Request: fold
Amino acid sequence: MLTLKEVPDPAPGPGEVLVRIRAAGVNPVDTYIRAGSYGSLPSLPYIPGHDGAGEVVATGDGVSRVRLGDRVYLDGAHSYATLAVAPESAVWALPGDVSFAQGAAIGIPYATAYRALFLLGGVKPGQWVLVHGASGAVGLAALQFGRLHGLSMIGTAGTEAGRKLIEDQGYAAFGHADWEAMRAATGGHGFDLILEVAAHLSLGQDLPALAHGGRVVIIGSRGPVEINPRDLMSREAAVLGLMQGFNTPAERRAIHQDIARGLQTGAIRPIIAREFPLSDAADAHEAVLKPGALGKIVLMP
Reply:
């Protein structure tokens, strides 16, 4: 159950930053934690959220990278609140031409997409990447990283509106099952990397579409799936599972440095699907699990 309650204002400790939240991101993982179905569960009571954006209103001892009044976004802080305490390592500069709602759409989606593409997927400029569910927050983040790094990308979406959104990012868009057309778009090469957000539906079809040495990175799955291991053997391919939160400090810095570069050049611009009041967080949790996403859902305190 999600309940909106008044609690005393928090104060930052050493190495911490207090942020007035102007927008908080809603992610599927938030709903899994709320439902008790996630692999690692917090003790209760618990403030949900992992990403948000706002202004720095106080800093603890030892904080040196941010100042009072700075516009920031959060990656890894409990953000369903009007005031949130975050370790300085979770606080990153938000440019003035990026809205707070867009800032709240950065943390989980872009860190996940970066980890899938580069840290696990090992993709190189010019290689072919297929992004399933590319009209959702993580998929759009992957497409925008592709634009920043010169990747050859294709996206899938289940609706015409979703496919148009992918095309607006500058990439070809297909339905989830248009395998013949997608393989033809690579000139017969196949995909060097596939980002899979619904492995329970598509993993068995992903494997025959891989190039030699290709990889599938599983970002999401809601159940078991049957595959033919020969599809992996014949391509010397691999399937990798992603769990956000395993980034080392060095990897976190690399991710957010790349995000900063993309925000500066305009290659990265989060797309907002819907805004909900903080009091309607339960409705936002229902909405984030529905198919046909067109960007990120955010809460506005």
